[in-house]
Amino acid sequence: MAEIQESNVKHVYFFIGEQAAASPSDGFAGAGDASRYGTVTPAGREEMRDADDDVTIEQVAASPSGDLPGAGAASTYGTSIPNGKPEMNPLAPAFKMRKKESPSSVPALDAASPLLEIRKVEGKGCGLFAVASIPRGTLIISEAPLMKVVDEGIHLTWGPYCRLSNRDKAAYDAMYGYQPPYIDFDSIARTSLIDPCDDSMDEGDADKLVAEPIRVMSIFAINNFNLQPNHLGIYATISRLNHSCIPNVHSAINGPLGVNTVHATTDILPNEELTITYLGGSASYLPRSKRIPELHRKFGFICQCSACTDQTGASDSRRELLDYLAWGLNEYNDRSTATDACIPASHAAALTQAEDLIVTLKQEGLDTIELTKAYRIASYAALAIKNYEYALQLAREESEVEKYCLGTDLRDLRRLGVATEGWFKRIYETIKVWEGKEVAREYQGLSKKEKQRKKARRYKKAKRVGAAAFRAE
């Protein structure tokens, strides 16, 4: 079978790891860093720390801190440390919530929104709730960071915090802070703020000096987002999004606009809480026995989402299958020579496996960016066996999910060559090479007609639910 011509384009959202350029003979390209499509995990199956190494789900449930309020957003601050800064102490004292971290009243949103309000949530602190119906694909929030620091720069948060306006400080202070036991905040603060040669300061003065910076760091540690390039940021509104293993919104950095956007990935009903996932990539497929202890270890809350409270085992079974299917497709994508039952042996087998992945993701309610990856690899496999019409249909499905998760302003992704729009071009180029220019034009014409039909259906839906509420950008 002829091969698709080589391309230097690197796709930033494919399953795991940094790979070579994409073609049916060499697999899709990926990236090892974060993108608007979410955090890309390192090559291989990156799993969370085993529960046996830390705390079991039973121990978490019995923990006196089990009812602590959750974080507002997933932290990107891991166990690595800036050069020359104190190491995180695995023997550090157990964490504790600070009294100042429990607001007496529900704070107002930083910017008025006709779709949202902040409400208290038992066991979570505060969360964002819909006050009206929010159709899938709606742009709910578009927000610039309240403050930002360089990656792994949690020790640098004190200065930017002090320079915030009183209004912004109030928004920052209203968020919850948590001190994960694997980060020695006290040591970091003392090293950053106290001169070891200063003999004029006694221990009591030192404790007072580091108390506020530690509080500021504990808020930033669990409420920050990855920014690009190589920065972390915290948001007055977006950082209040709580976690669910079955999220209903997607948060992504929009480079051209310089903001973080949040889109609805499913239809959201009035009074429903808006949630993102703090788990990225393959970690999303872990069973509840591993997800719950890890979320508690990192963020100090017990996840009570429908997947984590499912006692039937159905959710865990689906996640186990998802892990199996995704890992095998990743190995296929990397042109692995390993022999394993879950690694497709042919393009046709890969297409079937990718279809199973799509179905299982939908059954589990994971209409997230992971779904775009599944559609892309299915489209790739269909193209490889010359099922052109099906390859284009799958690409259109990917484009819809991409739009719902990321909106329509994809200039940065187009520049990188990773938007679905670029994959369409790649399909047409391949058809042109294999079948000739006229056949490629014919398929392009069919795609344009299908696109027009979808646009018409979207317009009808917008009229039905109200254009203002449905607007995606």
Short descriptors:
mainly alpha, 3-stranded antiparallel beta sheet, 473 residues, Beta-clip-like, disordered C terminus, elongated, disordered N terminus
3D structure, described in words:
The model is unreliable at 1-54, 63-104 and 467-473 (pLDDT under 50). With 473 residues, the protein is mainly alpha-helical. The chain is built from 14 helices and 10 strands. The chain has a 3-stranded antiparallel β-sheet.
Question: Can you lay out the helices and strands and say which pair or pack?
Answer:
Blueprint: H1 57-62, E1 116-121, E2 125-130, E3 139-143, E4 147-150, H2 158-162, H3 166-173, H4 185-193, H5 203-223, E5 224-227, E6 231-234, E7 242-243, E8 249-254, E9 259-264, E10 275-276, H6 288-299, H7 314-333, H8 347-363, H9 369-384, H10 388-406, H11 411-416, H12 420-435, H13 437-465, H14 467-470
Parallel strand pairs: 7-10
Antiparallel strand pairs: 1-2, 3-9, 4-6, 5-6, 8-9
Helix pairs in contact: 4-5, 7-8, 8-9, 9-10, 10-12, 12-13
CATH architecture designation of the domain at 72-277: Beta Complex
The count of strands amounts to: 10
Residue share in helices?
25-40%
Indicate the CATH class of the domain at 72-277: Mainly Beta
